[in-house]
Amino acid sequence: xxxxxxxxxxxxxxxxxxxxxxxxxxxxxxxxxxxxxxxxxxxxxxxxxxxxxxxxxxxxxxxxxxxxxxxxxxxxxxxxxxxxxxxxxxxxxxxxxxxxxxxxxxxxxxxxxxxxxxxxxxxxxxxxxxxxxxxxxxxxxxxxxxxxxxxxxxxxxxxxxxxxxxxxxxxxxxxxxxxxxxxxxxxxxxxxxxxxxxxxxxxxx
Length: 205
Fold this sequence. Notes:
8 strands; eubacterium ventriosum atcc fold; 7 helices; alpha/beta; three-stranded mixed sheet
C-alpha cells in the first residue's frame, strides 16, 4: 500500500500538544484507510514551555507503519518539519501592532532619506545639476529646480519600478526583490533551526 505525503516546512501549534500527520503534511492514499493515516500521531509535546520541535520523515514513517506495517511511505515534500509550540493562543494587540508599523516605517523613511542624501553629497549631485543647468540655459542657478524636481520624481518612480510594488498594487506578477530576500531569509532561518534541533536531538539521544 503506497501512501503519498507532502510535509510542510513549518507548523505552528497553538495550545495543541498532540500533532497529527494531517497537521504537518498533505496525505494521499488510494485506499479508504486514508483518513486513518491522517490521524497518525507524529509528535506528543510534554510541558507548557514555548519551544520548537523537530519532526523528521523518519518520525512520520514510524507513525504510519505503526498503524499499517505493510505501508510504503512516499515523501514528495520536506524531510524535516519544524513545529512551533505556543502553550497559549496569542492575542494580537492592534494598538501595539500599529505602533510597530509606524515606528518601523519612520525608521525606514528617514534612514532611506539620509542614505540618498549622503549618496548625493558624495557624488556631488547638486554641483552636477548646476553644471547641467549652465549647459542647457547658459546661466548660473544656485538651485536649479527645473532639473531637480523631475530628477526627484524620476528617482521615486525608479524605486517603485525596481521594487515592483506600490501600496497594495503590483506592477507585474513577479515577486518583488523584498519578497525574494524574505523567502531566502526564511529558508536560511529554517535551515539553521533544523540543524540546531538535530544537534540537540542527537545530544539528548
